């Protein structure tokens, strides 16, 4: 796989996500303290950090599943802490989310899983258009034949692909990937990484990817942020960080 | 003293749980009357709860009628009051035994299923995925299930009562040579509106309790597979207890109203 972590200038580009001074705690346990981050248009930003360092909490704050205690989060120019429910739902239609365990609805077929966000956000869409979009999304991940299968009948890798198809079905501007390769064998993980690159090229999305997988970060990241000691500890390209003299940074790339 | 601390802690935890459950019920009523209505999911839940519990309810009702009649027969014969059998059985089954036993069976079947399903959806982030898809998960998952359980329980209980009376009639037909027509004539002569109405009203509350507690336990389950099992188990235990409390209140109120 090509090393795509070449330097890409980020200045002068449009910010799609801007986080300033984010603070989040659970009782006495402070998870994020003065965390700052920007994601630019068409950029793949990888967020790395130890388990339990608050990466998933951060992503849930950005999508509005958790409320930050302090700080400002702007997504596509909108301050999400000030949005009402309907505005938040409209904004979420612009964001795709690939959950760590795929999070496909067990009681629904693959088709129903993909139709679900369409029915929510595009109520007036007719049946044929819905069918076409579902087929298109499944063909993009190479799983058109799984249309009427239940999630339990799919392998882990296939579930992850279907979940990606569901995340893409509304053609979002931003995609969040929460540990996209965790629990997959190296070959399937590589397929998922290539699929993520395809998606980025095809839909021109900006992506925030949470991962521990150094290979995944190497291939996909335009820029990497290390979440360490509750804040953005280090930032740079894969090459910059992996050759950093700081032992704490280096430890992530061994 | 550790013992008294433990009792105080348990009491505090119990009342906290009751408070949280009341808040959950309040949110249900608030969301029930606000748009959008998840009618399709509501119908799917009615089908899941009604259709899939039907055989269990019918078998339970049938055995209930058989056993109750077989057990009561010798005593009534001793007093020469076997002819009272249809009246006695119908009133006891319709008023009390049918609703309570069938509600307990449904607490096991429906309550545990809701608790486990919502618990596992929470653990596997399906509830978060739903919210990200622009759906209010409380409305889609909780409101539909509670409302479906509230409406389906009275229907299941009526069916269970009828099958129990068929079981009872079968025993009377075999043992006492009483025809089905005669048996059911006596049943309908004995039953009054005041027997049926409180039992039906009570059934709605039973259904509401089963749906509410199942959803509450599942929706608030802790992370991990152990949390899913605990949600299913505590949904059944807590609902069973609640059913007896509701039954007591219902009997007390109907006694005040009908004397």
Automatic annotation (TrEMBL), chain A:
Keywords of the record, alphabetical order, are:
ATP-binding, Nucleotide-binding, Transport
Domain (ABC transporter): give its ranges.
17-254
The record ties this protein, via InterPro entries, to: AAA+_ATPase, ABC_transporter-like_ATP-bd, ABC_transporter-like_CS, P-loop_NTPase
Q: Which GO terms describe its molecular function?
A: ATP binding; ATP hydrolysis activity
Ranges annotated as spanning the membrane: none
Q: Which SMART domains match?
A: AAA (SM00382)
Q: Which PANTHER family match?
A: INTERMEMBRANE PHOSPHOLIPID TRANSPORT SYSTEM ATP-BINDING PROTEIN MLAF, PROTEIN TRIGALACTOSYLDIACYLGLYCEROL 3, CHLOROPLASTIC
Please give the name of this protein. Phospholipid/cholesterol/gamma-HCH transport system ATP-binding protein
From TrEMBL, chain B:
Q: Does the keyword Membrane apply?
A: yes
Residues annotated as transmembrane:
54-72, 84-107, 146-171, 201-219, 231-253
Entry keyword Amino-acid biosynthesis? no
Molecular function as annotated in GO: phospholipid transporter activity
InterPro entries, per database record: ABC_MlaE_roteobac, Permease_MalE
Q: Which keywords label this protein?
A: Membrane, Transmembrane, Transmembrane helix
Q: Which GO terms describe its cellular component?
A: ATP-binding cassette (ABC) transporter complex
Please report which protein family the annotation says this sequence is part of. Answer: Belongs to the MlaE permease family.
Q: What is this protein called?
A: Phospholipid/cholesterol/gamma-HCH transport system permease protein
Identify the species of origin.
Salinimicrobium sediminis
């Amino acid at each position: 796989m090509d090393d795509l972590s070449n330097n890409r200038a980020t200045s002068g580009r449009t910010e799609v996500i801007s986080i300033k001074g984010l603070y989040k705690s659970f009782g006495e346990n402070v998870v994020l303290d003065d965390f700052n981050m920007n994601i630019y248009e068409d950029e793949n930003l990888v967020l790395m950090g130890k388990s339990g360092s608050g990466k998933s909490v951060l992503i849930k704050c950005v999508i509005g599943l958790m409320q930050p205690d302090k700080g400002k989060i702007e997504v596509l120019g909108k301050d999400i802490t000030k949005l009402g429910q309907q505005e938040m739902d409209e904004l979420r239609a612009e964001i795709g989310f690939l959950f760590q365990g795929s999070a496909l609805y067990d009681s629904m077929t693959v088709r129903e899983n993909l139709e679900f966000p369409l029915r929510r956000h595009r109520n007036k869409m007719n049946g044929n258009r819905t069918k076409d979009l579902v087929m298109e999304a499944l063909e993009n991940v190479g799983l058109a034949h799984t249309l009427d299968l239940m999630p339990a009948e799919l392998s882990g890798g296939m579930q992850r692909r279907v979940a990606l198809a569901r995340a893409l079905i509304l053609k979002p501007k931003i995609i969040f990937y929460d540990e996209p390769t965790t629990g997959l064998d190296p070959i399937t993980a590589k397929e998922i990484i290539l699929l993520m690159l395809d998606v980025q090229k095809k839909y021109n999305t900006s992506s925030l990817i949470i991962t521990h997988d150094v290979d995944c970060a190497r291939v996909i990241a335009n820029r990497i942020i290390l979440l360490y000691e509750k804040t953005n500890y280090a930032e740079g390209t894969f090459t910059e960080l992996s050759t950093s003299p700081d032992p704490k940074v280096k430890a992530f790339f061994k | 003293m550790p013992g008294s601390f433990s009792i105080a802690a348990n009491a505090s935890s119990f009342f906290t749980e009751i408070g949280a459950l009341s808040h959950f019920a309040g949110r249900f009523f608030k969301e029930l009357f606000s748009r959008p209505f998840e009618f399709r999911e509501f119908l799917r839940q009615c089908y899941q709860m009604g259709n899939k519990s039907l055989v269990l309810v019918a078998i339970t009702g049938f055995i209930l009628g058989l056993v109750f009649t077989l057990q009561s027969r010798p005593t009534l014969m001793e007093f020469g009051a076997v002819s009272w059998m249809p009246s006695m059985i119908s009133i006891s089954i319709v008023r009390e035994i049918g609703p309570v036993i069938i509600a307990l069976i449904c607490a096991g079947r429906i309550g545990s299923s809701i608790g486990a399903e919502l618990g596992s959806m929470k653990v596997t982030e399906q509830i978060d995925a739903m919210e990200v898809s622009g759906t209010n998960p409380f409305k889609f998952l909780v409101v539909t299930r509670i409302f479906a359980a509230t409406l389906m329980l009275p229907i299941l209980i009526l069916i269970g009562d009828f099958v129990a009376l068929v079981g009872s009639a079968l025993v009377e037909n075999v043992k006492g040579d009483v025809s089905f027509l005669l048996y059911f004539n006596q049943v309908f002569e004995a039953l009054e509106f005041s027997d049926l109405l409180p039992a039906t009203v009570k059934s709605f509350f039973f259904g509401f309790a089963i749906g509410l507690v199942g959803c509450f336990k599942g929706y608030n389950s802790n992370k991990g597979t152990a949390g899913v099992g605990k949600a299913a188990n505590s949904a059944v235990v807590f609902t069973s207890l609640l059913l007896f409390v509701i039954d007591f209140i219902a009997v007390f109120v109907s006694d005040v109203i009908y004397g």
